[in-house]
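[Q] Does anyone have a clean structure-token version of this?
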Amino acid sequence: MPGKSLVLVDSSVWIDYFRQGPKAIVVTLDTLLEAGEVAVSGLVYSEIVPFIRNEREQREIEDLLRSQHYLSFDDSDWTMVLKLQGILQKKAGTFATVPDLILAAICIRHRVRLFTLDRHFQVIARYSDLQLL
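[A] Here you go.
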């Protein structure tokens, strides 16, 4: 099981990174990549790769993503997804999408931080063991 030094990078960060978005995002992700601390999941991969239209870019991005640590999602994570949804509904009066809950469950089980630009993960982190970068 990966240690706490790994960071699961959400698709929101990858999209900004590939578009050469805000410098702070690019520099942070470059630093994590150089340190070998980047993790990906099948969910993140599936949110990025199919939407790349240029075949050469798609191969390059696939190679980059595949060269990172891979964090799996397994059947036990569904229990965490359900638990998180219940906690959010009861304590925060809100809900999260299933893909977001899946990412949170993966991070919690693997004990890694999440690098995301989506603010709603702050709510999930407030009521769970999710750690954000």
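[Q] Thanks! Anything notable?
[A] Residues 76-92 form the longest helix (17 residues).
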